[in-house]
Amino acid sequence: MAKVRVFSTKACPHCIVLKQFFNDNKIEFEDLDVSENEEARKEMVEKTGQMGVPVIQIDNEIIVGFDKPKLSQLLGIKE
Question: Looking at the predicted structure, is the pLDDT value of residue 15 above 90?
Fold first, then answer.
């Protein structure tokens, strides 16, 4: 199974929808709140060059934003 990490904030509506999508599809993920976790925020900026959330890391692949078709493809989720 792929290692999934989500860089997000509690106030981000796209982050909330993304996490619900993962929960609905039984995708386990590590949730990193970049508004509270400075180390995670620095890591996200180093990987993407930006502060926008959500950022999803699936193994070594980075997806910026809730790109449902791309996430479904990478995680083998049938739409």
Answer: yes
Q: How many helices (H) and strands (E) does the chain have?
A: 3, 4
The answer for residues whose C-beta is within 8 angstroms of residue 66's C-beta and 6 or more apart is 14, 15, 17, 18, 21, 54
Q: Do 6 and 31 form a contact (C-beta atoms < 8 A)?
A: yes
pLDDT at 2: 86
Element (H, E) at 44: helix 38-48
Q: Is the pLDDT of residue 68 over 80?
A: yes
Question: Tell me, what DSSP letter sits at residue 71?
Answer: H
Q: Tokens 């993962």 appear where?
A: 22
Domains, the chain, with CATH or none: 4-73 (3.40.30.10)
